[in-house]
Design brief:
- The structure holds two protein chains of two kinds.
- In chain A, strands 10-11-8-18-15-16-17 form a seven-stranded mixed β-sheet.
- Chain A is built from 23 helices and 28 strands.
- The relative contact order of chain A is 0.11.
- Chain A is of the alpha+beta class.
- In chain A, helix 3 (73-85) runs parallel beside helix 5 and helix 12 runs parallel beside helix 13.
- Chain A folds into three domains: 11-217, 2-Layer Sandwich (Aldehyde Oxidoreductase, domain 4); 230-297 and 354-445, Aldehyde Oxidoreductase, domain 4; 322-352 and 449-736, Aldehyde Oxidoreductase, domain 4.
- Chain B has helices at residues 50-53, 60-67, 77-90, 96-103, 113-126; strands at 24-27, 30-33, 47-48.
- Chain B is globular, with a radius of gyration of 14 Å.
- Chain B is mainly alpha-helical.
- In chain B, helix 2 crosses helix 5 (113-126).
- Chain B contains five helices and three strands, in the order E-E-E-H-H-H-H-H.
- Classes of the chains: A alpha+beta, B mainly alpha.
Amino acid sequence: MNKPIIENLDLSRRGFVKGAVGLSFSFALGGVLLGRPSEVYAAEGAKLNAYVTIAADNTITILCPTSEMGQGVLTALPLILAEELDADWSKVKCELATGNPRLYGGAHKMFPGAQVTLASVSVPAYYMPLRTAGAQARKVLLDNVAAEWKVPVGELTTDKSMVIHAKSKRRISYGDVVKFAKVPAELPKIAEGDLKKPGQFKLIGRKDIKRVDVPSKVNGTAKYGIDVQVPGMVYASLMHAPMDGVKVASVNADDVKKIKGVTHVLSLPFGVAVVADTVEASRAGRMALKVEWDTKDAKAAPFDSEKAKEEYARKAKDPASEAMEAFKTGDADKALAGAARTLEALYWSEHTYHAQMEPMNAVAKIADDGQSAEIWVGTQVLPLASAVVAGVLKTTPDKIKIHPQLLGGGFGRRIWPDAPVQATVIANIVKKPVKLMLTREDDIMAARPRPMTHHVMKAGLDDKKNLVSWHHRIVAENVDAVAAPPRFAATKGRDYIGWVGMSQDFYNIPNLKADAIREQRGMRVHAWRGIGAGYNKFVSESFLDEVAAARGVDPFDYRLELTKNHPRAQAVIKTVAAMSDYKRKRPGRGLGIAFSDYHDTLTAGVAEVSVDKATGKIKVHNYWIAVDPGLVIQPENAQAQIESAIVYGLSGALSEELSMKGGAIQQSNFNDYHVLRMSDMPELHIKIIATNNPPTGMGEVGIPTVAPAIGNAVAQLTGKRLRHLPMSADRVKKALA
Amino acid sequence: MVREHLKLTGTKFGCGSGLCGACTVHVDGRAVRSCQTTMSEVAGKKVTTIEGLSPTSSHPLQKAFIAEQVPQCGYCTSGQIMQAAELLQKNKKPSREQIVAHMDGNICRCGTYPRIVRAIQRAAKEA
């Protein structure tokens, strides 16, 4: 790795972070604070590169470049660096880095150079950069000891923060090395061969490594954005605008200002803010607000979920509709025309809300001259937050200091930096530091949901019942157009987020077409944990079972047949079948299987369900999953991430649904937006097949197989195919009637 | 009051309607949703937040939540622990069904439910 991590950078591929990070790229491992005298290091610790500082007392501080939102990066990423540094893990302190892609950009193929916490890319993006940084820091220490002891560097070894010269039986701690070490002006080059082989790992893959953030989370000391207070701050609440493009037609500002402590009632493009000296007054003001919205310029105003479904269905069938090609192999149309038998089915999914437990919030403090600001916020993309706040103040991102906070859940919602922008706008008006906190009701009103989708599936079988043609058509709001406009423009209107899961890369299908009718109706759609794979895999893996039935083969056998060229895919499918004893029939219960390849992590899941025919309620009794994520950094947390994503997937599969009328979301809190609770939990059975392949993602991969496995299980049990997410009791009852 | 005035931020705001359990505290040992509790209702009573559960973070549930590596984002955890602590006060050896019934009002969006159950069982065993 003695070459730049980022080569031949194609800016157009960097999507929405393009504007955020500017054009200042350098190596991911730029050295900083180089060439300072060694006595300074002895006092302050030696900063060996942008990520790591070693103090004379042997404490090693390692910065985590991405945001901690529950997925465990604050442990996993520093652990990767500590491995190559050969650090004593018990002396490592993990801290969040600031937003600075020049220093902390990752090396993921989808987001080269970007510092982003999304799409399950943290570990794959930083696996090589952090190993390189660790090896580089270790090399600096070794070179210094070799010079000090006048021994060949090749005779030195390291273990647990000690440099060892076996021949002379000398040992010195990293902390003591720092006391005399000089950091070269140019950091040493590390080639891939200089890195450990997986067999040499001492920390990576160890089952007893615990998360560093957990102790602070059991005693209330963990600090989230919503916990921040700064001197002199005032409180803001917000009646969030129900859709983009509305104006305030009328507001009872005079009444609300009569509430003691309320200082401002502000009509803003994103809603009506109530600013007050106390949190109670700001909340009381919010509750007293009566607002009428002028929706005539709001694109979303005509949107009604039920009417839109009729239009989506009509457009899907209309030959005049413009469908953009998403993925293609062979000639699916021709193969379908020549097929001996064809199948067709229509599928749906509804809008879903992230429901992160910490409602959106931010604290903004603007300098007197209005040209710089400090922001306290938990966000998934630090550089994007500083860029948009800089835009509000008409200054540059380097003038915006973001204090990164823990996230009380992200799941994609905190990619969008609306809260820091809103807090900045309000603070700029009231000329005081502002703490903005949304109520749950406003957080739902401000939702940036997974889109409502419609799918037309077609398959053609030849006279030997071989699948010769597959056509997956989606009709949905284009998510990239809303959530990643630069990428949308650069790809001439494709929808990366919305189309994930349509390409079937691991199935041997000779003629495949995936295309999209792209809606732009002003919905604030966004990335929701698992993105397009959440609904596309529900649709494709359900329809694959319909094809298997037409072919007269078992769904498990059929998936093995289709993946015959991909042994890793076959391994997860066979493993989950063995775990679940898949072919054993259970009276009154159905078993369904599904496979997914989300962002290169391979998963296969099996659900065991029963259905209450009177109510339509599906009960998932057991869920098994086999996962191949390549190399596993921290097995205990990898397991926890899979559990987490399964629960998120179950919740989305069975109950979560936003509905829109007049462009506005109709739900308001957890009484009418139902997320999974403990009593709905099945038994989870998880097997992670760790291999020495490069690590792929872990945070979302448990999701895509859940819904189709449940639908397939219900079909096996009842003979009825469920083709609409969520598979809520009412909907299931109707389908079974 | 608890969060912004007393600066005891371990208790979280989640829904403001008693639907999620993130704000659970004890009033005279009984678990209540602080978002649904007025100051006048607790006048003269003893209010315990997560910060007061144990001065050294050594309550059996806190130790068990670490041992089982329960929290992910951790935002609901204080409420989960306070809710569970009430259960273990009343019932030293709760069955799985009793645990689920007692904890069903507390949402964990990270889906740590299986670990919460294990941690409560562990705390019951080790207390």
